Amino acid sequence: MVKVIDMRSDVVTRPTPGMRQAMATAEVGDDVSREDPTVNRLEELCAKLTGKEASIFVCSGTMANLLCVKAWTHHGDEFIAEESSHMTSFETGGSAAFAGVQWRAVRGDRGSFDADDIAPLIRGEDIQLARTRLICMENTHTMAGGAVFPLEKMRSVAKLARERDIRVHVDGARIWNAVIATGIGIEEYAACCDSLSFCLSKGLGCPAGSIVSGPADFVARVRKYRKMVGGGMRQTGILAAAGLYALEHHIQRLREDHDNAKRLARALAELPKVKIDLSSVETNLVVFEIAGDSEEWMARFREKGVLLCPYPRNRIRAVTHIDVSSDDVDRVIEIARDLIR
Ligand SMILES: *Cc1c(COP(=O)(O)O)cnc(C)c1O
């Protein structure tokens, strides 16, 4: 049996023994009644880390974004998001279905944009127009290969939004990867937005869950809408314990994932048939192209036990995470050299 090295995504990570231990011993209660002490601790910690008044644990990143859109907008409003953003591409049209809003695309430069890009798209009070109520930024940006949204650009968007009385949401599913890649604190990113969400279930290695942080009255609305969509869970302390464990033990180690991603990228770049932009590998996603059909290449890797993810325009994505060790990366490099040479 070949050992499977699963690099399709960082959602495949499984709880470590230490995390399982923390989950097994978690103190729990009914979270809908706010009686789960572990959930309460996680929510308080996340509020403190992000410098926001309050935080709430929700089922997933998709739910986090959906509830934020719902809590910031009214039916018939519009929000602005980057054209290939996760919120508008991979969340089943939820904001239209549940919040009754439409969205306007801004074209990003590797997923990021600034005030000058946004200004012409903002629509105010006009009898004919849907009003822009919310601007969304994604950091790091999934479809831009895990690119970091530069802080200066975020600040310029935040300033414009304040001037125009528009709320700002950051989909920070992988914001901790941005924090580790840049050394910029999460509270600095959080200061650029009214609400911030991040995933516990990706690089942080938890089995489930995301966090939303923001003003207290906003988080209270999110809590109500979470109940409305059926996301009010009971003894969630078991999951929150995984979150607390991850925030303590799995943040700094993201650096290893980034180092592994860069090492893999450099090795791939040396192979004759591979096209890769090394400067694009900022965090834990490696996007590349191999001359020929990407599906066929991925099948060859799969036979050797390496699972990869298809990416638009005949490209392939490899993701480093806590279940891919440095030795695993060596092995993948070896396999790539054998297959591609
Ligand atoms: C994964 C992801 C989400 C959604 O998270 P789920 O927990 O899978 O619902 C949202 N935004 C971005 C940028 C993501 O990468």
Outline? globular
Helix content percent band: 40-55%
Annotated CATH topology of the largest domain: Aspartate Aminotransferase, domain 2
* pLDDT averaged over residues: 97
Provide the number of structural domains: 2
- Note the beta-strand portion: 15-25%
Radius of gyration: 20 Å
Q: H/E element string?
A: EHHEHEHHEHEHEHHEEHHHEEHEEEH
What is the second-level CATH architecture of the largest domain? Answer: 3-Layer(aba) Sandwich
Q: End-to-end span in angstroms?
A: 24 Å
Low-confidence stretches: none
Treating each run of at least 4 consecutive H or I residues as one helix, how many helices? Answer: 14
At the first level of CATH, the class of the largest domain is: Alpha Beta
Distinct ligands = pyridoxal-5'-phosphate
Number of strands: 13
Largest sheet: 7 strands, mixed
- Which structural class should the secondary elements be placed in? alpha/beta
Q: Your description of this structure?
A:
The protein has 341 residues and is an alpha/beta fold. It folds into two domains: 17-249, Type I PLP-dependent aspartate aminotransferase-like (Major domain) (Aspartate Aminotransferase, domain 2, 3-Layer(aba) Sandwich); 253-340, Alpha-Beta Complex (Aspartate Aminotransferase, domain 1), CATH 3.90.1150.10. 41% of the residues lie in helices and 17% in strands. It is built from 14 helices and 13 strands. It has helices at residues 17-24, 37-50, 61-72, 86-89, 94-99, 115-118, 151-163, 175-182, 186-190, 216-228, 237-249, 254-269, 294-303, 326-340, and strands spanning 5-6, 54-58, 78-82, 102-106, 132-138, 167-171, 195-199, 210-214, 274-275, 285-290, 306-307, 309-311, 315-319. A seven-stranded mixed beta sheet has the order 2-8-7-6-5-3-4, sandwiched between helices. A four-stranded antiparallel beta sheet has the order 9-10-13-12. Strand 12 (309-311) and strand 13 (315-319) form a beta hairpin. Helix 1 (17-24) runs antiparallel to helix 11 (237-249). The mean pLDDT is 97. The protein binds pyridoxal-5'-phosphate (PLP). Pyridoxal-5'-phosphate binds next to helix 3.
